[in-house]
Amino acid sequence: MTDIYVAPEVIALQGEYAKRVKEIITQRYAQPKVFLRTFGCQQNEADTERLAGIATSCGYTVTDTEEDADLIIVNTCAIREHAEKRALSGTGQFKKIKKEKPHTVIAVCGCMAQQEYRKDQIKNSYPYVDLIFGTDKNHLLAEMLYKVLTSGKRQYYVSGLHHDELGVIAENTPVLRVSNYKAWVSIMYGCNNFCSYCVVPYVRGRERSRNSAEILKEVKSLIDAGYKDITLLGQNVNSYKGDMDFPELLDAAASFEGDYRIRFMTSHPKDASDRLIEVMKKHPETIARHFHLPAQAGNDRILKAMNRKYTREKYLSTVKKIREAMPDIAITTDIICGFPTETAEEFEDTLSLIKEVGYDMIYTFIYSPRPGTVAAKMEGHIPHDEQVRRFRLLSAVQDEISAEKSKKALGKTIKVLSDGNCEGRSSQNKIVTMDKDIPAGQFVNVEITETKAYGLKGKVIN
Ligand code: SAH
Ligand code: SF4
Ligand code: F3S
């Protein structure tokens, strides 16, 4: 276990590099500023907050105006081709800034940059990028910046994250959170599941769990600091393996004194256990009534080809248990349509699954081949038009289901965490529009007077 942790001396050394970077940049620039752009999932958003924390320790202040920046960090995603295209064009946008302000340091990191061929592509086609680093190098940002600033040469910190390589866990790195009432807490990194379509195991390395004491300390300090909505993050939180398992960890995180909600994502259906459901049931106030349970497909042959390791029947029995334990729970899912070889009839099984479960919301994705994955090498890729047809059908059917689901909230009084601007979120994670502007980060009771497929409307009750 211990060897996956970055040694405390390495982290301490980063503090030294941060001081040197600060000396350099405060001499060179009047008010050093960093601009950060994030693509992809919550894991990346959490990583960006760490990068912002390190940049701040180096003397930069965060700006949301890219033209003002002396350092630009682009944290990329590789989950689908579209995500990579966006990250690449996002990087391309900074060419102009580099031309006008040549001293601006441009860094590209994250899941796309972790892939060797993408690293080479950025290196060759984006000559104004000064620094490229992989997902397991984030904690070295101060050192990497020091190298860029003192060498005047481009720097590359991308090492292979091969199947047998774990990747690292870096504790005690600075963090600068975007919100003062919502927080991400990574509990584990990487993934071992190798779903046949998915790039994550290749760009995030093997599954590794943080020590539970560190996690609980972080959660406690967030609650003490007034955070109200805390999400425990991992690609597959149910396979958390610290000195306790995930249900135990969740139980402990939800047992602190205070007015807050714990969320978690993502749960792999194969590992969603009875004990997890029991723990959720035990904490109706401090664990949000929301379960994101990605099904991906409703047909057993396709699930097998996806290497998901559960059947439709098993999935449905888990959903049944969740609903029996917590009738007010919202269940959401991810669906991939047009996986290689998926026939029109097999797709019908996915359609019938979403009807049978009656999700509150689904995230539908058109299958996108990812180089290096098993599915990308399969025969029988589905034409794009047909993928789009399936995507539209799913979305249309779900819109109706979601509208029906929302109606159940009509007339009820629910607890909402305000996001400001007359909006907030319910425990079920539904967007609630309110008749009053309540300060962000405050809980209020709202009586629901109107419902839409993906939102509720109501009046604040004093
Ligand atoms: N670890 C999470 C998923 C992370 S990726 C889990 O297992 O649930 C988020 C979603 O992106 C996945 O659930 C899947 O629906 C989708 N996805 C992943 N790879 C994809 C691909 N190659 N093409 C289309 N969608 C994909
Ligand atoms: Fe990808 Fe599957 Fe791991 Fe999720 S569980 S990150 S879909 S390989
Ligand atoms: Fe994208 Fe990496 Fe997350 S590929 S979805 S940013 S883990």
Short description:
The protein is α/β, with parallel strands linked by helices. 37% of the residues lie in helices and 21% in strands. The chain folds into 4 domains: 8-157, Rossmann fold; 181-288, Transcription Regulator spoIIAA (2-Layer Sandwich), CATH 3.30.750; 289-407, Transcription Regulator spoIIAA; 413-460, OB fold (Dihydrolipoamide Acetyltransferase, E2P) (Beta Barrel), CATH 2.40.50.
Labels describing this entry:
462 residues; alpha/beta; Rossmann fold; Transcription Regulator spoIIAA; six-stranded parallel sheet; 14 helices; 21% strand; binds S-adenosyl-L-homocysteine; binds iron/sulfur cluster; binds FE3-S4 cluster
What is the domain tally?
4
CATH architecture of the largest domain: 3-Layer(aba) Sandwich
Give the CATH superfamily of the largest domain: Methylthiotransferase, N-terminal domain
Strand content range: 15-25%
